[in-house]
Amino acid sequence: MTTRGRHVLRIVELGFLALCGTAAAAGPAAAQPTAAAVRQDRPLSYVLLLDDHHVSMSGDSHDLDRVRDLQQGKAPLLWFRDGGAEYVVRDPATLQQVSALWKPVNELGAQQGKLGSRQGALGARQGKLGAQQGKLGAQQAQLALREAGLPDGDDRDRDRAELRRQHRAIDQQMAALGDQMTALGREMDALGRDMDALGQRLEAASQKAEAELRAVVRRSIASGLAKPVA
């Protein structure tokens, strides 16, 4: 299967889970499925199997096993379950059309994955800076204890002055680390805004793909390209 970021897979699965279903028609005349039978208030489990390395699906592993049993050799197919009925589409043009529907979604998801990686790298850098700050803080505490333990007297003034000099040096290092931490925080905030904007675009693209897929499913049933599975 194509390797995608976890976030991308989740978006695609949520998109297809919101798809239309087939209504149970009333009366004996409704034995054959029609385009009007496709409804939006039922989830649709699907598997788009193009080859061993390109699979898109919304369902569980049993669905994928089921589709592999239905596959004719290495031929690609689209399988979906609508309510209690199963259908298979083998028409190449329809399969390519369904695959293309989610290309914009996948591309946006990949961009989100890259932003997430950058955020992770920034977070790691912030963690290292925080660890350095922690060490410097511990050194400051030790210096303060040593200074507090010095007895009064002129002969200890030099030791006290040296401890205070070291303390000031550590303060400067802490300030420099704080500036780096602030800069990283601003960069992280900017990435967060970019991630939010991508999320909105991804949601819109997913909704569009869902609507287009419903139309493809309706047409495939109406035209007879979607074959009921016995």
Structure description:
The chain is an alpha+beta fold and 230 residues long. It is 63% helix and 13% strand. It has 5 helices and 7 strands; from the N terminus they run H-E-E-E-E-H-E-E-H-H-H-E. The protein has helices at residues 6-17, 61-70, 92-101, 103-149, 157-223; strands spanning 21-22, 38-39, 44-51, 54-58, 77-82, 85-89, 226-228. It has a 5-stranded antiparallel sheet with strand order 4-3-5-6-7, with helices on both faces. A two-stranded antiparallel sheet has the order 1-2. A hairpin with a 2-residue loop joins strand 5 (77-82) and strand 6 (85-89). Helix 1 (6-17) crosses helix 4 (103-149), helix 1 (6-17) runs parallel beside helix 5 (157-223) and helix 4 packs antiparallel against helix 5. Mean pLDDT is 81; it is low at 1-38.
Helices and strands in order, then pairings?
Blueprint lengths: L5 H12 L3 E2 L15 E2 L4 E8 L2 E5 L2 H10 L6 E6 L2 E5 L2 H10 L1 H47 L7 H67 L2 E3 L2
Antiparallel strand pairs: 1-2, 3-4, 3-5, 5-6, 6-7
